[in-house]
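Troubleshooting: if your tokenizer reports a length mismatch, compare against these two reference records.
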Amino acid sequence: MKPGKVYLIGAGPGDVELLTLKAVRRLGLADVVLIDDLANPEVLQFVPQHAEVVYVGKRGGCASVAQADIEARLLAAARAGHCVARVKGGDPFVFGRGGEEMQTLQAAGIEVEVVNGITAGLAVPATLDIPLTHRDYVHGVTFVSGHTHQGDEPDWAALAASGMTLVIYMGMSRLGFITAQLQHGLPADTPAAAIQYGTRPQQRQVVATLATLASAVAAAGLGSPALVVVGPTVGLARLPAHGQTIEKEST
């Protein structure tokens, strides 16, 4: 039997209207779908009725299928000749472990196609009119994970000194530590924001400073999934549209 094909599909940051046309078309080919919790389940409207849908979790702090088991399921479905859609929030190659899954599949001789999605780091700040770059403020942006792997720790001092907008994924559980570390290289009054459920109707956010963000987030009860943005352009944040809430903290 000829092996099937696996599509590593980025489902975007949450708003189903930010799903790409290519993603919609590839979802329509699927016999088997493995979908992460961070992907909006509304994307399943584009999946054929006959498709088997498997929810695999992959949200920090919540029960999930082990990564090795996910890869084993992908291999088994593809070897059975199925067209497999592996659906991830954001982009599969931006903190999505898509690279690991691609390597495992390719090593087994399975054809893989990557379908990029809009990563949260691009779309979520834009919901508050926060530009990641701006000629008058900042000339670059850095995406970094606040969730360390095997004890590895980002060089927060170097990141603070980089002069870049910092977009921090998976940093909410360590927010107090991260903001304290960044203050070794950035002023305490540097604008900073935390945005939960970005681009979705239930989006909530706190706009504050490095010195006050952690306490403001705790007071507002924000949690994961959320994105943290640090830099001068956060000072351009606007109040969100009607129906959303904002807690704005200042020094």
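Reference record two:
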Amino acid sequence: MPRITSADNPRVKHAIRLVASSRERAKTGRCVLEGEHSLRVFRERHGAPETVIVVESAMEKPALRTVLARIPERDILIVPESVWADFAQIPVAIGVVAVVRAPTTTFRRAAGFCLLLEDVQDPGNVGSILRSAAAAGVAQVFLSVGSAFAWSPKVLRSAQGAHFHLEIFESVDLPPWAGAYDGVLIAAVARGGESVFAAD
């Protein structure tokens, strides 16, 4: 496994840019996963990531070493804490990040249990909703143009791996989609609606 001592390494610089810049994520179609759990779930469902960056101290964790054993060594970069510090938003305790291509799904037909998110702009809220959706058995999530980017660091952090249990579609024009949906539609409103516990 290559040991990197400078943040000027091209692969490290690329990961740092992805964490910091939504424009870079949109341009490259890539995102950064944080932590052993997200890395493990991604590898199980989508294969090896493009690059894995591990802080030296995290190499002592048996669970992480088990995941890394299934990834080509050439794609694992080990860095000291001085280099990790350039990931300003990510605590050293996280231990590992991975650069991956954001999975894309070709829409063929609507599932029986879908979730539509219209203009949910807070990344933390989007992530929490995705996590709840996955736990509830939702199969597909459709986000409007005005919603937060599903693969941003804050959404990924909040969702805790839920992305990889869902089919996610972004920039969807929701009213026409809902109008064509051949199923029951239930809309959440801020006020004036019926309690979800009273709905049939």
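Descriptive notes for reference record two:
- Residues 88 and 122 are 20 Å apart (CA to CA).
- The chain has a mean pLDDT of 90.
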